[in-house]
Every structure is written in C-alpha cells, then in structure tokens.
Fold these 2 entries.
Entry 1:
Amino acid sequence: MGALLEGHFRLTSGLHSSGYLQCALVLQHPVEAEACGTAIADRVRTLSPDVVLSPALGGIVIGQEVGRALGVRAIFAERQDGSLTLRRGFAIAPAEKVLVVEDVVTTGGSTQETIDVARAAGATVVAAAAIIDRSGGNQRIDVPFHALATIALPTYEPEQCPLCAAGKPVVKPGSRL
Ligand SMILES: [Zn+2]
C-alpha cells in the first residue's frame, strides 16, 4: 500500500530513521482497516477488555476497528498543553479493563503515556497492541504487548545519525507525507 517510506525522517519520538511507516495509507481503506482491527482483536479477546483507548491522531482509526471487532467502545486521548488527556466527555470507570491500541510503536513512549491516562482514571490496562512494532524489541511498555508485525528499521539519536552526517535533509512526516 506504499505505507513504508524510505528517506530521512524525524520521528515523533525525536529519533531519526531511514524508514517511516505511514499507517494512514493502509487505514484509508476500510476493508484493510477492519482486517487489521479484527486481527488485533483476535489476539486480545481472551483478556475481555471493556474499552479500547488510543492516542490521537494515529491510534484513532485502528482503535475504532479493534473496538468494533471486540464489540466494545473505543475512545481516544489527545494532547492538551503537552500531556495526553481524555476530552469530549470520554471517561473510564475504575472497574473497567482497558486495551491500549496504537498504529505504530517505536519507543513505546506514547503507548506508555496512554496507559498512564487509563491508570489515572483508576482503571486496569490489560494489554497494549499495535499494527506494527518497529522498536526492535526496545519498547518500554509495562503491560503485555501484541503487534501484528515486527519490522526492523534503524533509528538514530540525531547527533549520531549517519544520514545527518551525510548532509541529507531530514523530513518530519506530517501533512505532506
Ligand atoms: Zn538524521
């Protein structure tokens, strides 16, 4: 689907990479989005989550599809003054079991932040899941983590990035990519 881009990218985590996964290019197709959601749901169904929680924007579409496949509601947290927050009247009850869903996990930072949103509401996070794990096994997530596919893409601290050293302009994937 052309979602795996090659070049010189500054990821949301701040790391640089020669590869970027633009999952929106897959998720724009409802049939594929639903298939990814069903596949994630099949891996976590036995945990009986009550609600799917995703970080905006990247996690919203896949979170919705996982919620559909599990027959539970899907909500999202969004950034306000720098921290992820539940808005729009979304709420999680302390008794609820939460599944955190993302599109791509690189460092696990935003996934862990989303887990912390659910815990702040007093709820239990039973697992986290993503379409793609590109962390190379280095993600820091303190609940069981499931991914549909693991892809090894090199990431670099900016000051150690060979692409920067070679003088290649760095691109922040966003509206244009
Ligand atoms: Zn670089």
Entry 2:
Amino acid sequence: MTPETIGMIERLIGFPTVSRDSNLELIDYVREYLRPYDADVRLTFDDDRRKANLFATIGPRRDGGLVLSGHTDVVPVDGQAWDSDPFKLVEKNGRLFGRGTSDMKSYIAIALALLPRYASRLTKPVHFALSYDEEVGCIGVGRLIRDLETAKVRPSGCIVGEPTLMAPVIAHKGKKSFRCSVRGLAAHSAYAPSAVNAVEAAAEAVAYLKRMARRSRDKGPYDHGFDVSHTTIHTGVIRGGTALNIVPHECTFDFEFRYLPSVDADALIDEVEGYINSELEPEMRDIDPKSGFKIVRLSEIPPLDTSAETEIVALVQELSGNHDVGKVSYGTEASQFQRAGIPSVVCGPGSIEQAHKPNEFIEVAQVEASERFLGKLLDRLI
Ligand SMILES: [Zn+2]
C-alpha cells in the first residue's frame, strides 16, 4: 500500500458524506486534486444543488477508454456502536477502519492516488464517475449518465468498484420499490361494519405479496448463479391506526421486488394491482366510494446482465487473475451504465459483508490487490 493510497483513503473517509447530507466538499476536493492533470470535469447536481456527481476525463479527448465508477455517499452511523470515529481512518491489525472503507471509497481513492503516475502518458482516456445518492436507490448517477449522452462521451467500458473481494461480477438483480397508501373510512370501532378498515385492507395486500414471495421461492424461476437464486418480495415498513377503539382510516406500507434479470417486474406489480382492484377495492367502495389503494414507485434499479463474452469481462478476469464470474443479489450503478450502452462489470476491493455495519473495515491485502489491478489496468491505457 503506497503512502499516496493510504493518504487518499484517509482523506476521502474524512468527508462525512452520509446520503442525506451534502457531498460537495468531497467533490470540490477531487476537482482540485485533478486540476494539474488537465482533467475535463463535468458536474451534475441534485435539485437543491447540495450534492453533485463528478465525471472527469483524463488523457486524450476521444471515444473509448474506461470509466472507473464509484459512489461518494455512505450509509448513516446513527445508533451503531463504533469503537472509533467512523469518519477518521484507523489502521489496526492489517485492516483499515472507517465508514466507507469497503463501500466504497477505497476503490475511488486507489484510482485517484495512482493517477499521477499515468496521467501524462495516457493514449486512451480514463474517466472517473463519482456519484451521489447511490445508497438511497442509485438515484444520482442517472443525471451523470444523461449528461454523458448529451455530451456524446462514449467510453468503451465501465468498472464499478463495489466491494466484490476483487471478483468480476457480471450480473445483479433489479429492484423496484413502492409505497402503497390505503384510504379507508373512520368510525367508532363498535360500528366497524359501517367503516372501512385501512389497516385490514393493507394487511390483505401484504399477505398477498407474501403469497407471491412463497410462490417464487417454491416454483422459481431460478438462477443458481445468484446467492439468493429466485426473485424476492418483501414488505419493510407499515404504519396505520391510532387507537383500538377507532376503525383506522389510513395505512401505508413500503414493499419491494428484487428480481432476476429474466423476470418481468412490471408483471409482478400488475398482478398485485389486479388483486387489489378485483378482490379488495370493490368491498371497500361498497361502503365508501372514496376509499381505496394508491401505489407510487419509490425507486428503481434495473438488473445487470453483462455477457461473459464481453471484452471488458475478459479484461477484468485477466487483470484480477480471477476467471470465475459472479452474480450478486444487491443492486449497483453498473446496470445504468450498461443500459446507456457502456458495457459494465462490478469488481472492487473489500467485502459487502462489512458494508453498512459498525466498525466497517477493509483488509489492507484487498487494498493492495486493488492497487495491482488498477495499476495493470492503467498500463493498458498508455
Ligand atoms: Zn456501495
């Protein structure tokens, strides 16, 4: 591990870029860092201009080259018992501790720290894509990608450095999440038959989602390349009711589908809506025509399904020395690059096991493996 690498990891960990907060200090720091290398820097902001994506091109301005992509935001540390300050890098027993060490500032830091050795010799462009709001549903990177399309920047591949223990990952599940609001009609609970109980209606819809989840567990379709080999359906939050003697007039719940690339997720949501429209709402509306369900989409991550025959996959296999290809159940930004016509692979240092937990760390050996990998990769661009 070079002093430049550890210094850069320490620097990036020191910016407390929790998704709900601004990441602009980190973005400004990277922009200044890139200045001596004649970087072409494009920023795209969120609506409040409190957060930004950074896309930087170094080397010749032409098509091709590779994108090194990572998110700058980290998950919160609230309520977690840390043994040290999460935003101050601590090295201990061959591990680096700090929020974002594995997920995923080390990858960005290693690539930035290597740059001075290569910047003046590049014959193909290297692009850095740093995003905001990944942890809250891969929301930020969409603006970065649309900006690239407008600017007609056409890299030939993208490596997203999410923690895979340096194994090439070519597929991940898609995710669609929804909020369902149920409107009922309140009454004294002694007169329940004249009211519409929103909690009970929601419960029937949640139970239907659970039946769908069991069906996909028991009947597939399956892809055993994934650690969870089938589509999963889950309700994570439910709120409703105020007192036992009042029939509740409101209930909301949040649910998600995490689906295999081969599965049509729109058909899943159509099925739930079909059940609600035909089985639940008629009975509610017999009592109060204004009652019913409303479902809104919260977030969406398309699935990733890169062919194992793609050039970028072969390159990552060769440089990592790891010829297996993996599939993971969590979503990443790789699928959005892929959809924009940039073949994408996920491969980065550290383990997803350590992500989002107190005392998050990365093994120094992983940092070193990633230094070697990115060094060889940049060698290919000179
Ligand atoms: Zn991540």
